[in-house]
Amino acid sequence: MLWVDKYRPTRLDALDYHANITERLTSLSNDKNIPHLLFYGPSGAGKKTRINALLRSIYGAPAEKLRLSKRIFKTPTKREVEINMICSNVHIEMSPGDAGIYDRYVIQDVIKEMASNKALNSSMYGNSKQQQGDASGSNVADFKVVVLNEVDSLSKQAQASLRRTMEKYTSSCRLILCCSNQSKVIEPVRSRCLGIRVSAPSVDDIVRVLKVVARKEQFTLPDELAVNIARESDRNLRRAVLMLEASKVQQNVLSADQPVQKTDWELYISQIAVDIVREQSPQRLLSVREKFYELLVNCIPADVILKTLAIELIKNLDDTLKAEVIEWAAFYEHRVCMGSKEIFHLEAFVAKFMAVYKAYINSMFDDDF
After folding, report:
1. Is 0.90 topped by the overall pTM?
2. Are the beta carbons of 235 and 207 closer than 8 angstroms?
3. 3-state secondary structure of 301
4. Tens of pLDDT, residues 179-220
């Protein structure tokens, strides 16, 4: 088992940072009558961990008895859509965005099914709750929970459908929404949820967690290496723990000056940046497009690709060009968020950079002559 899964906290009181959020979630779980929730924040900040800890605090052990379920939904056009879900007796977790343009039918069917089931009887889980010492058996929530991941990737039609469904089944079902970009969730959905922002952990927070993992694995982690990993992870705790495990595999006895191992996709983007700077031509643009497709197929988000590529490109640029390249990167990142065909905007950014860079090189030669 990977360390990132092995040492993931499962209780609210075991969370390592954001004490104010933990206190707020503890208060909500004690009431046993939570509203619809919207967790938002950057990747690797701990949104899913806090959602799972909240469910455990509300329901106790039954929330941890998970099973993987594969469901097939039928659309009005008789098309079958297959979705993977993680289920327990008290909740369902899924990413309806995987259904593509049929996401709204998946949302409607799942929530309708959850809400139509008989409400949980408090005595069903009373014994398990008493054993956990979390609450008395008579104080168990009488509703079920649907956890929807990547809500910001849902279509507008699906989000509108979600709004109506939230109002209709609120008595027997609660929704916990999770996303990275809150601005891509429509206002009617946001206004019906209690928003909880989980910000990225600080470098000190990540160093502290890495030290705890190292102590449990019984090896010494130099302070300098821990700080380097925290900085290279871009304040992504999940990524930092994976980088620590990769460093341990690479070198059994860790040293302070040990280089931090980058991920394969980062090295791949670095090579793309080198290729773009080396040659600006239609043939090069076509080869870069194929590499972009490979990254997207391997589930690297388009905005992450664009941001990482822009950072790699400006490393060796003249100061007079950096501001313009950053401006165009921001422009096309906005296009990626607002558009539907990500590859178009990634390729457009590369084409614009090639035009700007080639014009700059030509102007240098013109000045010389």
Report:
1. no
2. no
3. coil
4. 988 888 888 888 888 899 999 999 999 999 999 999 998 888
| Number of C-beta neighbours around residue 221 at 10 A | 21
Distance of CA 59 to the CA centre of its chain: 25
Start-to-end CA distance of the chain, whole Å, equals 63
pLDDT tens column, 124-181? 444 444 444 444 444 566 778 888 888 888 878 888 888 877 777 777 788 899 998 8
The vertex-88 CA angle with 85 and 94, nearest 5°, equals: 25
State the CB neighbour count (10 A cutoff) for residue 140: 23
Tokens 């590859």 found at: 343
State both tokens at 164.
Answer: 């109506």
Token pair recorded at residue 78: 């008789």
Q: Do 146 and 90 meet the contact criterion of CB atoms below 8 Å apart?
A: no
Task: Find out whether 49 and 8 touch, Cβ atoms under 8 Å.
Answer: yes
Alpha helices in the chain (DSSP H): 3-6, 19-31, 47-59, 103-116, 126-132, 156-168, 187-191, 203-217, 223-232, 237-250, 264-278, 282-297, 302-314, 319-338, 342-368
**Alpha-carbon torsion 300, 302, 303, 308, what sign?**
positive
Q: 175: part of which helix (H) or strand (E)?
A: strand 173-179
- Hey, how many other C-beta atoms are within 10 angstroms of the C-beta on 163? 17
Backbone Cα Rg of the chain: 24
Find out whether 37 and 24 touch, Cβ atoms under 8 Å. no
